[in-house]
């Protein structure tokens, strides 16, 4: 099975789009997309410096445009699965057929501008925590009032929150962990981005999404989304929700992905996969320049849907209906069969407990929240089902 992946913010490099402009029609395409995004994508991808392309408002549409531009030169009819990291999920949604490319570019422009505006409200930041015990790392973040904004697998968790909290984390890292402060505008994928989520939701409400034409993974919980409107809701909620790339990689392994093409600016996601899936490593092509297109096409030909049948993904996730503290049903363990409508727990709120029910039948594959864990509305609580 072949997966095409779209990278997120932080993967960009000055001038990375320059060789792509030699392809027929590329410059005209980027001028059209620039008008939709409200930024000069050609300048940003060719002559802009590193500081300019770190600007969230500019970087996000640039990354989506780069991925979609390169994907136009691949035989996507043989691609079984798409996924993207953070803003890269907009590119993945377009490749899956949920959104037209123009809609993905427009949303990336809105998302970038609104997240940049949210960053300016109060001083916040992010830092990568490398290594250490996961539970201890999460406990340390909680102690400093920080959020686990990205869980990228391979011993990497990105913390986000107030600059004072980040300073405290740098000064007092978890045992056997290294903390690297990131050069970003603010605390992405946390409640600090709430104003951006509201603004993006207002624009997304006018979209008529299609059903995915191929398997599409969600950053929210690594599950497969097969309903267009649900995917758009997740894209909007993603602005304030953690990126669970670790769960996306787990699903790649669960589904038996044997080949991966990472779209430009490629390399970051390939590195995470190599570290996380070392025991069952798929063949990977990092599509950095047009010179890599023959290798990517060959990989697709050998691992794509024409070469082997794709399984039908049936992952479902149960989410929190309200803010509060989650209490799973006593005695309910992973592996047990669930019926539609079965109560799997409660969220204890200030107004009393709210039932959490299974909206689909199937095995309880995995708990995504533990007993007495504080949860937000829409936060994943449990994973139901598998694949066949």
UniProtKB/TrEMBL annotation:
Domain Malonyl-CoA:ACP transacylase (MAT): 5-325
Catalytic activity, as annotated: holo-[ACP] + malonyl-CoA = malonyl-[ACP] + CoA
One Gene Ontology cellular component annotation held by this UniProt entry: cytosol
Protein origin, superkingdom: Bacteria
Keyword ATP-binding: no
Pfam families to which the protein is assigned, alphabetical: Acyl_transf_1
Gene3D superfamilies: 2.40.50.100, Malonyl-CoA ACP transacylase, ACP-binding, Malonyl-Coenzyme A Acyl Carrier Protein, domain 2
Record GO biological process: fatty acid biosynthetic process
A molecular-function term among this protein's GO annotations: [acyl-carrier-protein] S-malonyltransferase activity
InterPro entries cross-referenced by the UniProt entry: Ac_transferase_dom_sf, Acyl_transferase_dom, Acyl_Trfase/lysoPLipase, Mal-CoA-ACP_Trans/PKS_FabD, Malonyl_transacylase_ACP-bd, Single_hybrid_motif
Record key words, sorted: Acyltransferase, Transferase
EC code: 2.3.1.39
Enzyme class: transferase
Protein name: [acyl-carrier-protein] S-malonyltransferase
Lineage start: Bacteria, Bacillati, Actinomycetota, Actinomycetes, Micromonosporales
């Amino acid at each position: 099975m072949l997966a095409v992946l779209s990278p997120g913010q932080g993967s960009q490099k000055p001038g990375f789009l320059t060789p792509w402009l030699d392809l027929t029609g590329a410059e005209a395409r980027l001028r059209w997309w620039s008008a939709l995004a409200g930024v000069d994508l050609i300048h940003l991808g060719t002559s802009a410096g590193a500081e300019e392309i770190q600007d969230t408002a500019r970087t996000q549409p640039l990354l989506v445009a780069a991925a979609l531009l390169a994907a136009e030169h691949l035989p996507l009819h043989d691609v079984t699965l798409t996924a993207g990291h953070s803003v890269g999920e907009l590119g993945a949604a377009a490749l899956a057929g949920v959104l037209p490319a123009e809609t993905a570019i427009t949303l990336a422009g809105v998302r970038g501008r609104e997240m940049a505006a949210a960053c300016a409200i109060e001083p916040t930041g992010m830092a990568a925590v490398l290594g250490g015990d996961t539970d201890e790392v999460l406990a340390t973040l909680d102690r400093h009032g920080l959020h686990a904004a990205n869980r990228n697998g391979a011993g990497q968790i990105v913390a986000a929150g107030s600059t004072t909290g980040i300073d405290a984390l740098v000064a007092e890292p978890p045992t056997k962990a290294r903390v690297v402060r990131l050069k970003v505008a603010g605390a992405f994928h946390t409640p600090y981005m709430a104003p951006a989520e509201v603004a993006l939701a207002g624009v997304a409400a006018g979209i008529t999404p299609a059903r995915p034409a191929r398997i599409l993974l969600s950053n929210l919980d690594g599950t497969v989304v097969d309903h267009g409107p649900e995917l758009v809701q997740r894209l909007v909620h993603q602005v304030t929700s953690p990126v669970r790339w670790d769960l996306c990689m787990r699903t790649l392994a669960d589904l038996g992905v044997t080949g991966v093409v990472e779209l430009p600016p490629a390399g970051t996601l390939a590195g995470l996969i190599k570290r996380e899936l070392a025991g069952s490593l798929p063949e990977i092509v990092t599509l950095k320049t047009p010179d890599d297109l023959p290798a990517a096409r060959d990989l697709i030909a050998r691992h794509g849907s024409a070469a082997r049948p794709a399984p039908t993904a049936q992952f479902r996730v149960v989410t929190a209906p309200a803010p509060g503290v989650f209490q799973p049903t006593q005695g309910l363990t992973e592996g047990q069969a669930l019926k539609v409508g079965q109560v799997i727990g409660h969220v204890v709120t200030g107004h009393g407990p709210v039932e959490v029910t299974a909206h689909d039948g199937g095995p309880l594959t995995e708990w995504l929240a533990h007993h007495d864990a504080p949860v937000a509305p829409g936060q994943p609580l449990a994973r139901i089902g598998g694949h066949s």
